[in-house]
Design brief:
It catalyses: octadecanoyl-CoA + 2 Fe(II)-[cytochrome b5] + O2 + 2 H(+) = (9Z)-octadecenoyl-CoA + 2 Fe(III)-[cytochrome b5] + 2 H2O. Its cofactor is Fe(2+). The protein contains 19 helices and 6 strands. It is mainly α and 481 residues long. Among the domains are: 11-244, no CATH class; 351-445, Roll (Flavocytochrome B2, Chain A, domain 1). The chain has a 4-stranded mixed β-sheet with strand order 3-6-5-4. The structure holds zinc ion (2 copies). The site of one zinc ion has 7 residues, from helix 3 and helix 5. Residues 146, 250-251, 264, 280, 284 line the site of one zinc ion.
Length: 481
């Protein structure tokens, strides 16, 4: 969380709310929001970190909230016996406050992926505040910038700056408020629950983060201090670290089934840690979908909760991308991967780059001892292959200097697809007037383009059985005719 709004921040003093007509620009991150900000003075982040000034680069308030307090909690836990009721409550409250972030802050407010009734909004704003990760308004604004400017310098928690930076560093080190990309949060400024939570953020944090979990354990089974340490402080620590993983782990670990131009990734481990936010490659492609996991067997408890709330009438208008659109993205990415794989293979010199040889030259060179063989108008140099020919030396030698098209295509032996592929890597020329060249000439004469299927890099795709050396078999059955 940047310097102008720390974890338990100065939200209530945000001058943006004094703006009578908040415009899209005004609701974005504005450097002059910070009263101590002087546009003439360079921001501390613009000066290099030295031994003399390093402490000025650190956001000490955030260090206290996200590192200091948890450490104190760990120490205190050594002297505080953990009662089973408190342990159960801490886990339950962990899920509630986690959901406040994932189902509330993230999918409801940052992405508008569904509508929530007022009671549900109040619940999510409360438990989300209990996770101590800033106000909804502040969190959603940064998150929208993260989606809009993913992996760029305007991304508030870009993983390109390192895994630790995207996890914690962006909060522990001061950020230049001018740097974060602008986003429109007019809708959030019009949501009374968001505005109320932002204005009363410190009260919400102390009540929902510490007082409420302590009260439940204290009034419920008399474990006041245990409730405070386990369901309060340590639970905050775990829920913070878990949700921070969406910014770090989800941009670092796993697959990219929909798009690999940016860092977001899908992984079940991240999903387990983040209440289902681990299908992050999908999420960055389809951010307004209320789901992160689209398969029934994938772990996305946040989605399940939203779905149950919709059945209970608490949530509505659950947004879902059509599976046709999702599958299109998946197929395109698969195609890209396939093209990359294909590009790494040797398919032989493209025919249009091969020299054109006269038939007589070809025969002459073969007579002079070069192991040349012509199949379908393409000349191949098989000198080094003669001894390895699975059908024996004699058979291949009998084709040298001749048109071996029919021999190769069933006259002597109907060669396999793999044999056609291998042959293509040996090609050295095309015969003038040979089959492939003939087709080009005819197409040019008739002023037609020859449309081959090409991959991303413009290379012709050779599907199995479509090699130039492969000649169509004549139709032999009466019914086929
Ligand atoms: Zn992300
Ligand atoms: Zn998101």
């Amino acid at each position: 969380m940047p310097s102008h709004q720390p974890v338990a921040g100065m939200a209530a003093k945000d001058p943006e709310y004094m703006d009578p007509q908040p415009s899209a620009a005004a609701s974005a991150s504005e450097p002059n929001r910070n009263k101590s900000y002087d546009p003439k003075k360079p921001h501390i982040t613009e000066t290099p970190i030295t031994r003399a000034n390093w402490y000025k680069h650190v956001n000490w308030l955030n260090v206290f909230f996200i590192i200091g307090i948890p450490m104190l909690g760990c120490v205190a836990a050594c002297w505080t016996p953990l009662r089973w009721q408190t342990a159960v409550w801490a886990v339950i409250y962990y899920f509630w406050t986690g959901l406040g972030i994932t189902a509330g802050y993230h999918r409801l407010w940052a992405h508008k992926s569904y509508n929530a009734s007022l009671p549900l909004k109040i619940f999510l704003a409360g438990v989300g505040g209990g996770a101590v990760e800033g106000s909804i308004r502040w969190w959603s604004r940064d998150h929208r910038a993260h989606h809009r400017y993913t992996d760029t310098t305007k991304d508030p928690y870009s993983v390109r700056k390192g895994l630790m930076y995207s996890h914690l560093g962006w909060m522990v080190m001061k950020q230049n408020p001018k740097r974060i990309g602008r986003t429109d949060i007019t809708d959030l400024n019009e949501d009374p629950v968001v505005v109320w939570q932002h204005r009363n953020y410190i009260k919400v944090v102390f009540f929902m983060g510490l007082i409420f979990p302590t009260l439940v354990a204290g009034l419920g089974w008399g474990d006041w201090f245990g409730g405070y340490i386990y369901a309060g402080i340590l639970r905050i620590f775990f829920v913070q670290q878990a949700t921070f993983c969406v910014n770090s782990l989800a941009h670092w670990l796993g697959d990219q089934p929909f798009d690999d131009r940016n860092s977001p990734r899908d992984h079940v481990i991240t999903a387990l840690v983040t209440l289902g936010e681990g299908y992050h490659n999908f999420h960055h492609e389809f951010p307004s979908d209320y789901r992160n996991a689209i398969e029934w067997h994938q772990y996305d408890p946040t989605k399940w909760c939203i779905w149950v709330w919709s059945k209970l009438g608490l949530a509505s208008d659950l947004k879902q991308f059509r599976s046709n659109e999702i599958e299109k993205g998946r197929v395109q990415q698969l195609q890209k991967k396939l093209d990359q794989k294909r590009a790494g293979l040797d398919w032989g010199v493209p025919l249009d780059q091969l020299p054109v040889i006269e038939w007589d030259d070809y025969v002459e060179q073969a007579k002079n001892g070069r192991g040349l063989i012509a199949v379908a108008g393409v000349v191949h140099d098989v000198t080094d292959f003669i001894n390895e020919h699975p059908g024996g030396k004699a058979l291949i030698k009998s084709g040298l200097g001749k048109d071996a098209t029919s021999m190769f295509n069933g006259g002597v032996y109907l060669h396999s697809n793999a044999a056609h592929n291998l042959l293509s890597t040996l090609r050295v020329g095309v015969i003038r007037g040979g089959m492939e060249v003939e087709i080009w000439k005819r197409a040019q004469r008739e002023n037609k383009d020859i449309n081959f299927v090409k991959d991303d890099a413009g290379n012709r795709i050779i599907r199995a059985g479509q090699q130039v050396t492969k000649v169509e078999q004549p139709i032999v059955t009466a019914t086929a005719a």
